[in-house]
Amino acid sequence: MPKKKKKKIKKKAKITKGKKATTVFQKGSNTDEKIQIKKIKKQPTEKKQYILNQHIVYPKHGVGQITSIDKATIGGIEINFYKVFIQKEKLVLTVPINQQSNLRPVSSVNQINKCVSILKTKPKIKRTMWSRRAQEYEQKINSGKIYELAEVVKDLNKNTSTIADQSYSERQLFEKAYDRLSSEFQVVLKASPEDVKKRMDKALGRVENLEEQ
């Protein structure tokens, strides 16, 4: 009889050890799950580069202004973002702060002056099919680079002797690039649309052509 009792005690001890091991494993797995939830609850933090009411450039839409810096929870993830108002298109964009590299500050006065110098140069027209050139112009317009924007305006300037009888698509691209460039000129120079238009048209040689007409 004493031998049997010892065996029972051993069995109980094994069961107890097994239970403890299981409990420890469950606690470990719960801890792991909690850590994972914490990781995905907050968006990776990034220092804000822009402030409220600051003017910026969103490459595909042009000049905009930051109207608010907000937080929202989407799919259980807390996101910090800018609200950007694009005046020309009457459009409000939501740009997460961890994607602010898609934005750029508006140009400096020196960069604007260099753009004016670009507008004064002769247009460069490639001897390629219009569809290919149109695609290149579109890419330059949406690049967000102000010098490339100025080059498109200069190359598609319809009042030069180099380009005659512009097609509808050429005029559209010219006006899109012209308006984008003009918007940035207005913000940087703190000038009216009329004053900016006079300055750009003078650089493009459009003033003389308009007066002759």
What does this structure look like?
The relative contact order is 0.10. This protein is an alpha+beta fold and 213 residues long. It starts with a helix and ends with a helix. A 5-stranded antiparallel β-sheet has the order 4-3-2-1-5. It has 2 domains: 51 residues, Thrombin, subunit H; 104 residues, CarD-like, C-terminal domain (Methane Monooxygenase Hydroxylase, Chain G, domain 1, Up-down Bundle), CATH 1.20.58.1290. The longest helix is centred in the first third of the chain and has 40 residues.
Topology:
Layout: H1 2-41, E1 55-58, E2 62-74, E3 77-86, E4 91-96, E5 104-105, H2 109-120, H3 130-141, H4 146-155, H5 168-189, H6 193-204, H7 206-212
Helix pairs in contact: 2-4, 2-6, 3-5, 4-5, 5-6
Structural class: alpha+beta
Radius of gyration, whole Å: 32 Å
Average residue pLDDT: 81
Helix content: 40-55%
Q: Quickly count the helices.
A: 7
Strand/helix succession? HEEEEEHHHHHH
Taking the alpha carbons of the first and last residues, their distance comes to: 123 Å
Would you identify the CATH architecture of the largest domain? Up-down Bundle
| CATH C-level class of the largest domain | Mainly Alpha
Number of DSSP-assigned strands: 5
- The oligomerization state is single chain
Strand order of the largest sheet: 4-3-2-1-5
Dominant shape? elongated
| Low-confidence residue ranges | 11-29, 209-213
